Structure formats: structure tokens, C-alpha cells
Amino acid sequence: xxxxxxxxxxxxxxxxxxxxxxxxxxxxxxxxxxxxxxxxxxxxxxxxxxxxxxxxxxxxxxxxxxxxxxxxxxxxxxxxxxxxxxxxxxxxxxxxxxxxxxxxxxxxxxxxxxxxxxxxxxxxxxxxxxxxxxxxxxxxxxxxxxxxxxxxxxxxxxxx
Length: 160
Prior knowledge:
Blueprint: H1 10-28, E1 40-45, H2 50-62, E2 66-71, H3 83-93, E3 96-100, H4 104-113, E4 118-122, H5 128-142
Parallel strand pairs: 1-2, 1-3, 3-4
Helix pairs in contact: 1-5, 3-4
């Protein structure tokens, strides 16, 4: 699962960044790299986002998989069905889940009850995919992360 970055060591985060940069290089060079061929990820959007949807759908396509968009109107999240039941049902059909939600407890409960990997696409406590993307950008432009001083000043809407 990818719920919060503080669950990962510095070495694991560096591995993720190096892997992302290598996959990006392959894509730019036209190399076919499809490790997710035949896999489907469910994209749960309680809170909508243009960039998150486009990046996850495009990424799954480029890696050979399929993304299934699920808006809050398509599923029972918050409308009666317990998240534990929803997680178990989705685990039978999908290979992974991404959730972009308001409450961090939704992410934690989905991960607790799902038997497939869960990615936090955004919650009120964490935005790990955005942080990884930002770190990748810095690494690509600066060539390193160690020793750099960084500050994020945002609007406070999603992360600050």
C-alpha cells in the first residue's frame, strides 16, 4: 500500500524515484514496457481532480494496464455500504485501488479491508503521490535531493 510516505525508508523512496525516472526514460524513447499488462486499477474519486485522473489513467495505459474510473456517484462510498464490504468486493475484481477522498480514515479503512494494494491519491492528511512527483521533478532538475533545503508554500487546499 501507498498510504503515507513516512511508512517508507529513505532508500525505498529513492528506489521509487529512480524507478519512475527510468520508466519515464523508456516511455520517452518509445520502448515498450508493460509490467501491468492485464491488470486493472480502480480509481475512486470522492474528490475530483483533473491531474490525478489523467496521470493515473495515462500511467496505467502506458504500463499495459487498464484504469476504471469510479466517481462517488458510481459507488456506495458514504451512502450506506460499509467500506469494509466495498473493499472486499473490489478486491475480487481489481488488481489495485487508488482513492482520492476527503477523510484519511477512508484510505486507512480501504487498505485495512482490501486484499489488493491501495494508493492514497489524496486525503485530508496526506498526498504521497504529489510529494513523490514533486521530489522526482527536483531530482531531475537538481540531480540530487540530499543537502537541498525545500519548502512548500501552497494554498492549503490539498496540502501545505
